[in-house]
Design a protein that fits this description.
The chain is of the alpha/beta class. The chain has helices at residues 12-16, 18-26, 48-52, 63-69, 76-94, 97-127, 133-161, 182-190, 212-216, 220-231, 250-253, 266-274, 282-291, 346-356, 379-392, 418-428, 454-467, and strands at residues 6-10, 38-42, 166-169, 199-203, 236-241, 263-265, 295-299, 308-311, 314-316, 323-336, 360-366, 370-376, 397-409, 435-438, 444-449, 475-477. The protein has two domains: 6-242, 3-Layer(aba) Sandwich (Carbamate kinase); 323-477, VC0802-like (2-Layer Sandwich), CATH 3.30.2130. The protein has an eight-stranded mixed sheet with strand order 3-4-2-1-5-7-8-6, sandwiched between helices. It has a six-stranded antiparallel sheet with strand order 11-12-10-13-15-14.
Length: 479
């Protein structure tokens, strides 16, 4: 293992744009030694993990969901065959001849092996006396890793066909009986590699103790990427996405109005992660920040642009808003108890219930007798939390309502008059604020609005606080 290398992660949409990925990222005009000293962590091709598990947004069942439900609506075998055909279709769009045969053989073998495991578990389930929680969790992990194994293998074939000394690093633990820690798995796999002459193509899924999907949900690829950068002491970590890290979603404010951020810090990245924005998983960002490794977010389709650099010590020279982001649907869970004044324990009890039911807390506020949590959760989860708290505190009034949250974020947003200006911008387009929070650190301001006002609020705040402001400020270092 050599020093001075970079670790780069490629997202699913970028992986699917194969020709662009080769031309702009993997090769990008390099030759000889310039091709190397880079480790690539790859996601599954766009849509593949949805087919293997369930659709990330719509919830449409994939192989795992069909198997777990076992309701006869859709057979998991049909879902797995769909995966195999999609893998072959992807291979055919990239490869031909002997390389295509090799890619198809790899995909067929992996799918068949997973299918055999599912058949074994299915036979156990038929007896009705086996508890399947652990086998189901294991199958979910195995299915998730199948997508990354396919994309990594195909990528290595493509690169080798173009004269690149690419090396497949399969972290999925295929046929392995041991589950080491994530860091140990990475060290064992990467230590024999000479980065000066080899290009490792690493599966984003890693088989390790605790389970990657169980611990990190769909953010497991970024955790693998982050830990590789930390373990190998990379000089920089790079994420390649299908878009720039911009001042707002271009689909909401317009492509010509959204601006690339360019520079920001991990504090801002944390705020974005808390809102579910696809900058970087919060636990992945933490490891990079603690190790002092800068993170760069680049647009796969904009080869010449350096992207946005995220560092631990960056702060703008002059206070300014860098990004307007938010969540279009949250549940405001309001807990009112007249006897709360001067008493302790209510906050802890609510937190315990929310943790037990796995409700993501985006924000919270409180006063003398009311505690409000803003939750990213489904209706059923919120209902279960209310039922539990109502049973414990029969005298409390506990209600929930749907709201949206729009956040004004920056490394330093302490500019005078920011909040009045923002409120006026919302009022000018007829938006009445439901609630607001302004943190002392001056990194974000949260505006809670009605769900129907989410997109107009994004556009109004972006127009006033970003589009109409002066040129980007200079840089200073944080104290």
């Amino acid at each position: 293992m050599t020093c001075g290398h970079k670790v780069e992660k490629v997202g699913g949409t970028s992986m699917a744009a194969t020709r662009t990925l080769l031309d702009n990222v993997l090769i990008a005009g390099r030759s000889g030694a310039d091709l190397y000293s880079r480790i690539f962590v790859v996601s599954a091709y766009a849509g593949m993990t949805d087919l293997l598990l369930e659709h990330k947004k719509s919830g449409e069942p994939g192989v795992y969901a069909c198997f777990a439900r076992n309701d006869g609506e859709r057979d998991w075998r049909d879902a797995l065959e769909t995966v195999r055909l999609k893998m072959r279709q992807r291979n055919a769009s990239m490869l031909d001849g002997d390389l295509l045969k090799e890619a198809d053989r790899f995909a067929d073998q992996r799918v068949a092996a997973v299918g055999a495991c599912l058949e074994d578990v299915d036979r156990l389930r038929a007896h009705g006396r086996f508890r399947l929680e652990e086998p189901l969790a294991t199958m979910r992990e195995m299915l998730a890793g199948l997508g990354e194994a396919h994309s990594a293998h195909s990528t290595v074939l493509l690169l080798r066909s173009r004269g690149v000394n690419a090396r497949l690093v399969d972290l999925t633990g295929w046929k392995s009986t041991e589950l080491p820690s994530l860091d140990d798995r990475l060290r064992d796999a990467l230590s024999p590699i000479d980065l000066a002459t080899e290009m490792p193509i690493v599966t984003g899924y890693a088989g390790c103790e605790g389970g990657m999907v169980r611990r990190y949900a769909r953010g497991y690829t970024e955790m693998t990427f982050s830990r590789i950068a930390v373990v190998t002491q990379a000089e920089e970590a790079i994420i390649h996405k299908e878009f720039h890290l911009s001042s707002a979603d271009p689909r909401l404010v317009g492509v010509g109005r959204a601006r690339k951020i360019g520079r920001t810090n991990y504090d801002v990245a944390d705020q974005l992660a808390n809102l579910g924005m696809e900058a970087i998983h919060p636990r992945a960002g933490r490891g990079l920040r603690q190790a002092g490794i800068p993170l760069r977010v680049r647009n796969t389709f904009d080869r010449e642009d350096a992207g946005t650099l995220i560092c631990g010590d960056y702060v703008t020279d002059e206070p300014r808003v860098e990004i307007i982001a938010g969540m279009p649907l949250l549940y405001a869970l309001q807990f009112f108890e007249q006897d709360m004044v001067g008493e302790k324990g209510y906050d802890a009890a609510i937190l315990e219930a929310l943790t037990r039911h796995r409700a993501w807390i985006v924000s919270k506020s409180s006063n003398a007798n009311t505690i409000t949590h803003y939750l990213a959760a489904d209706t059923a989860t919120v209902g279960r939390v209310i039922d539990e708290l109502s049973a414990r505190y029969p005298g409390a009034a506990i209600v929930s309502r749907r709201v949206a949250m729009v956040c004004v974020i920056g490394s330093d947003i302490s500019q005078p008059g920011l909040v009045p200006e923002a409120l006026q911008a919302l009022a000018d387009v007829g938006i009445t604020m439901v609630a607001m929070q302004h943190q002392i650190r001056n990194v974000d301001v949260q505006f809670v609005v009605e769900c129907a006002d989410y997109e107009p609020a994004i556009r109004a705040l972006h127009r006033i606080l970003i589009e109409k402001k002066a040129e980007p400020a200079k840089v200073r270092r944080a104290a």
